[in-house]
Amino acid sequence: MNALFKALNDETRRQIVEMLKERDMNAGEIADQFKMSKPSISHHLDILKRADLITSEKKGQFVAYSLNTSILEDLINWILTLKK
Fold it and tell me: Where in the numbering of this chain does the HTH arsR-type domain appear (predicted)?
């Protein structure tokens, strides 16, 4: 769960999650939405993948990134258990 909170603690990564909520995207499409280098975007994507917030799938010469909604459901369920 620590990796999940670390991943969500960054504004850029939260924006990437929001973008992937709408549709699957490749790294280039994601990078085009930010004013930072592609290696920096790749670093953010790696953190999101290690937190299981996103998944990746090779499609031809590109890698498509998707939002992993099951980890978000787990997070919501955990938060709800804190409510008394």
Answer: 1-84
Q: What is the per-residue pLDDT for 1? A: 80
- Please give the Cα distance from 11 to 78 (Å, whole number): 22
Comparing C-alpha atoms, which of 43, 49, 45, 44 is closest to residue 68? 49
CA gap 32, 77 in Å, rounded: 34
Ordered structural domains, the chain, with CATH? 2-82 (1.10.10.10)
User: Distance (Å, rounded) from C-alpha 46 to C-alpha 29?
Assistant: 16
Instruction: Tell me the β-bridge partners of 26.
Output: 64
Confidence of residue 2 (pLDDT cuts 50, 70, 90): confident
pTM beyond 0.85, yes or no: yes
